[in-house]
User: Which sequence fits this backbone?
């Protein structure tokens, strides 16, 4: 870190203490300060959007920001601010830009990795079940990924699996070793107990996203009997300690109308969640059930509901398919994130199980410069209509071209599936979504052409 960066860091951290004295009045002032400190200009649009929402006291994001200072442990909140706003956004944007320019490749803001393929559940449609339960990244391998990543400007690390909390001890160790980084996990929540919750409060830089698909009936339908009640116990432990957590939610043809309802949004808020990541069901693997894929009308419904509730409810939400317009289309292939599975294969996306590199023989930078990730870099965005971002679900054939040209292989150790076979399962949904997406794109004031 340069002297100039250290000065920026100190100024930004000091600004947080100023916010805490009077959040409602001081948040806008601090946003102006952070904008002035950002010589990369990468935060301008994000800050402008936050400022616009915060000016309206009835806006959901205004309410959410204030609730963080009421509901979250102040020491954790400050720690997360330093890691997210300061380290991963303000200070590292220039580093990532320099690496991108020098090497002609994508450099991710976040890395998703699987400590293990083992899981205590077997959820319908989960890609982890395709890997089996025998793969693991060692503690040293996980540590090395993080060391490499931070050198390239990546300070956010997400765990998936399997069930990442099978490796609770190692996850806490990595939080301790890398206090400058933010860690989160997509977890079923059933392994969060009092001891682990206390450890989370101690290290402060781990934030779980608990997988829930509605209330008891819907969650247990996909994840197994008793899972919903286990998630409720976990969230209660986190609320009692004033720890930040969110929800990870997969919408399918069976639950989309409920997932997008005001009733469910209000429930997530009442549970204490401050954010929700929305995913749509993808037919990953040869045995995937295709009839769980959401219809075009259901996806349109989620598009409208999420946007409406962002304005009215104190819950930060992101729909990883319908929000393509805010991030310039597909964010995979290292553009914003990538996935490293429990066997070490470096994949473009958690839903794209093809690779031409492995962390056990390639560095991260080498992987970014190899043919598969270069193909993503050269082809993104995959559609001028940012509501059709995905090279599989929205533009079948694009993934097949990249995989075939790069020579990437399937990383499924049980039943390898060709990229064409995977993409072909999405042709019908893509065809039906295209005119709906065109109407929504035009409605938003943008020209899809």
Assistant:
């Amino acid at each position: 870190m340069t002297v100039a960066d250290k000065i920026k860091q100190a100024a930004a951290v000091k600004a947080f203490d100023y916010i805490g004295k009077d959040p409602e009045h001081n948040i806008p002032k601090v946003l102006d300060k952070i904008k002035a400190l950002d010589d990369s200009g990468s935060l301008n649009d994000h800050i402008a959007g936050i400022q616009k929402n915060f000016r309206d006291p009835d806006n959901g994001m205004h309410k959410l920001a204030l609730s963080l200072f009421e509901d979250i442990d102040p020491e954790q909140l400050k720690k997360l601010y330093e890691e997210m706003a300061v380290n991963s956004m303000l200070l590292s944007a220039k580093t990532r830009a320099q690496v991108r320019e020098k090497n002609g490749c994508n450099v991710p803001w976040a890395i998703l990795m699987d400590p293990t393929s083992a899981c205590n559940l077997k959820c319908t449609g989960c890609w982890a079940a395709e890997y089996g339960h025998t793969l693991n990244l060692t503690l040293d391998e996980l540590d090395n990924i993080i060391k490499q990543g931070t050198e390239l400007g990546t300070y956010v690390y997400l765990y998936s699996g399997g069930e990442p909390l099978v490796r609770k001890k190692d996850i806490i160790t990595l939080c301790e070793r890398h206090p400058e980084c933010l860690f989160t996990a997509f977890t079923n929540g059933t392994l969060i107990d009092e001891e682990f919750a206390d450890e989370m409060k101690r290290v402060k830089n781990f934030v779980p996203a608990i997988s829930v698909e509605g209330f008891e009936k819907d969650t247990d339908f996909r994840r197994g009997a008793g899972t919903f009640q286990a998630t409720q116990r976990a969230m209660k432990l986190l609320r009692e300690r004033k720890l930040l957590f969110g929800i990870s939610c997969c919408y399918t043809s069976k639950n989309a109308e409920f997932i997008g309802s005001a009733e469910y949004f209000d429930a997530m808020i009442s549970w204490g969640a401050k954010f929700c990541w929305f995913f749509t069901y993808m037919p990953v693997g040869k045995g995937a059930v295709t009839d769980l894929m959401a219809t075009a009308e259901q996806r349109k419904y989620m598009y409208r509901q999420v946007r409406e509730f962002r304005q009215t409810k104190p819950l930060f939400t992101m729909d990883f398919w319908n929000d393509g317009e805010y991030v310039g289309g597909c964010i995979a292939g290292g553009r914003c994130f990538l996935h490293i599975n429990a066997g070490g294969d470096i994949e473009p996306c958690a839903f794209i199980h093809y690779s031409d590199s492995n962390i056990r023989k390639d560095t991260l930078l080498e992987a970014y410069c190899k043919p598969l990730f270069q193909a993503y870099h050269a082809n993104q965005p995959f559609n001028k209509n940012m509501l059709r971002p995905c090279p599989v679900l929205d533009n079948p054939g694009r993934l097949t071209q990249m995989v075939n040209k790069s020579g990437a292989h399937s990383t499924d150790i049980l039943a390898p599936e060709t990229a064409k076979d995977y993409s072909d399962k999405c042709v019908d949904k893509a065809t039906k979504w295209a005119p709906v997406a065109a109407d929504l794109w035009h409605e938003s004031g943008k020209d899809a052409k």
